[in-house]
Design a protein that fits this description.
Layout (H helix, E strand, L loop, with lengths): L2 E3 L2 E2 L2 E2 L4 E7 L2 E11 L2 H20 L2 H17 L1 H12 L3 H21 L7 E3 L5 E9 L2 E5 L7 H12 L3 E5 L5 H13 L7 E3 L4 H14 L4 E5 L2 H13 L5 E3 L4 E5 L5 H13 L9 E7 L3 H14 L17 H11 L7 E2 L27 E4 L6 H4 L6 E7 L2 H9 L3 E2 L3 E3 L3 H10 L6 E2 L15 E2 L13 H4 E9 L23
Parallel strand pairs: 1-5, 8-9, 8-11, 9-10, 11-12, 13-14, 13-19, 14-17, 16-17, 19-20
Antiparallel strand pairs: 2-3, 4-5, 6-7, 7-22, 15-16, 18-21
Helix pairs in contact: 1-7, 2-4, 2-6, 3-4, 3-6, 4-5, 9-10
């Protein structure tokens, strides 16, 4: 059944400027949703409505807002399988992974419901008598959130849950190609009792959303921008926000390295590299980019990794597979471009490349009319190669070698991204030296580059982000501002740094 969905602003369906079809990438002829896309003025209008709604929402006591977050978690939990199946249908994510994604929303709600009772400030001693100093967390106002569709429900919850908990109103622009999943999540949030206008969902293409954000920032109706997507678009949003003296929360792409030391458990490293490289068909910001393997174990690792990839199940995402289809036609077209980055000095060790079809099958699997692609491992990648330096969003992993840990760290940092990283070793000294020197905001030891928990900070540096963090208590700094207050009850004007009592020491005293 094809769904018909439009933006919801102030609790009411909004008129659309143009139409878009969200498809099932495993069966491209199947339309999952007919989506009405909004224009720039509609986006800006949603921000104005949110600005009105946030005043009353901010007055709701934080523990009460926390109970709303708790209700969202329970609603998602009760609808987990239905929501996960919709995610699988709309973006082709394997069902087991989709269930894990939905679980992440529940975990996020479970964490933040308690933060409603822990939005702590401080009582600070004053340098003067009869005077107290305080700090308070206050909501920023309206948050405009723009998210990608590879994690169509989990990643948005990283923004929406803490933003709402802290007393902000939200305008959320999800990816068009994941509109049905986003609309379903919006309905679950709304069912928890959020007042109209506190959470608004606007479906729009990138150009309209950017123009609308520009309008809203100029009008002063948006105080925080959150964006998850490509580094290229993130730069443009960062520039736009900078013109309005705002610091956005940017979670961008990655070229995530995995270092395999000579003392590593190779079977474990191969298992981690398989999941990191090809889970979600390599379409995660934390997907493995390059395996940096010690030259002494290179051949053994590549042999095992090649076999693991060749034996991995690819197909219908409703089944037990590691790889489903690519997310949408535009990602398939981009992946075709990435395949042109394979150079003559490279060695594709996994066999066929490109789309899986009857003419280019993977064993007996012919793709069945979906956007399925052969997983690719490219050995012999060099530090100057485009394949080494740039993010490749899809099922392709490069392999290169190193001699010393210092060289491995240099290779890990060279692309200039800084999201996730991994090292496989049994030597604690190597693990801690890697931690100290790697530029990534996140690292794993003897684990894959992918996998976040709801109570740890998530985010990157360099081309992967501007240092902002999501998840855990750290994200509260994105959606609150510190306010300082001093209360003088002395009955007279006391001037800081001027009317301070001084106790005179005898600095010339000697034993």
């Amino acid at each position: 059944m094809t769904r018909h969905i439009v933006s919801v602003i102030g609790g009411k369906d909004s008129q659309a400027a143009k139409a878009y079809q969200s498809i099932n990438p495993a069966r491209v002829e199947q339309v999952v949703a007919e989506v009405g896309l909004a224009d720039a003025e509609t986006f800006a209008g949603a921000c104005r409505i949110a600005a009105e709604a946030r005043r009353e929402w901010a007055k709701v006591p934080a523990p009460v807002r926390g109970r709303v977050i708790a209700s969202i978690g329970r609603l998602v939990e009760e609808n987990a399988e239905t929501l996960a199946r919709l995610v699988t249908e709309e973006i082709g994510k394997p069902f087991a992974e989709a269930l894990g994604e939905v679980r992440e929303i529940v975990d996020t709600c479970d964490f933040f419901l308690g933060e409603g009772r822990r939005l702590y400030g401080q009582t600070v001693p004053s340098e003067m008598p009869d005077k107290n100093l305080f700090t308070f967390r206050v909501p920023v106002g309206v948050a405009a959130i723009v998210t990608a569709g590879n994690f169509p429900v989990a990643v948005p919850s990283w923004y929406l849950v803490p933003a709402l908990l802290c007393g902000n109103a939200v305008v959320w622009k999800p990816a068009e190609y994941a509109a049905a999943s986003a609309h379903a999540l919006y309905r679950l949030f709304a069912a928890a009792g959020l007042p109209d206008g506190v959470l608004n969902i606007v479906f729009a293409d990138g150009a309209a959303a950017f123009a609308g954000l520009d309008l809203a920032l100029g009008e002063g109706s948006v105080q925080k921008v959150g964006f998850t997507g490509s580094s290229e678009v993130g730069r443009k949003i960062g520039e736009l926000c900078g013109r309005h003296l705002q610091s956005p929360c940017l979670e961008l792409g990655g070229k995530n390295p995995m270092v395999v030391m000579p003392d590593a458990d190779l079977d474990l490293a191969v298992e981690g590299a398989l999941f990191a490289g090809f889970g979600t068909a390599g379409q995660r910001c934390t997907s493995l980019g390059t395996v940096i393997v010690h030259e002494s174990i290179h051949d053994d690792f590549v042999t095992r990794y090649t076999a693991a990839v060749q034996n991995a199940e690819i197909g219908d995402p409703a089944g037990d597979v590691i790889c489903g289809p690519l997310l949408d036609h535009k990602f398939a077209e981009r992946f075709e471009e990435y395949l042109t980055w394979v150079e003559p000095h490279h060695h594709v060790v996994t066999g066929p490349t490109g789309q899986i079809t009857a003419a280019n099958p993977r064993g007996e699997f012919t793709g069945e009319g979906g956007l399925f692609y052969h997983p690719v491992v490219v050995d012999g990648v060099r530090p100057g190669d485009q394949l080494f330096l740039e993010e490749t969003f899809g099922p392709i992993v490069g392999v290169t070698t190193f001699r010393t840990l210092e060289e491995a760290i240099e290779l890990a940092n060279k692309p200039g991204y800084g999201l996730s990283s991994s090292i496989y070793t049994t030597d604690p000294k190597s693990a801690f030296r890697f931690r100290e020197a790697v530029s990534a905001g996140m690292l794993s030891v003897n684990n894959s580059t992918s996998g976040a928990e709801a109570h740890l900070p998530f985010g990157g540096n360099g081309k992967s982000g501007n240092g902002s963090r999501q998840s855990g208590m750290w994200v509260l700094d994105q959606f609150t501002r510190w306010q300082a207050m001093n209360w003088d009850y002395s009955g007279r004007l006391q001037k800081a740094q001027m009317d301070v009592a001084e106790i005179i020491p005898d600095l010339g005293y000697r034993l």
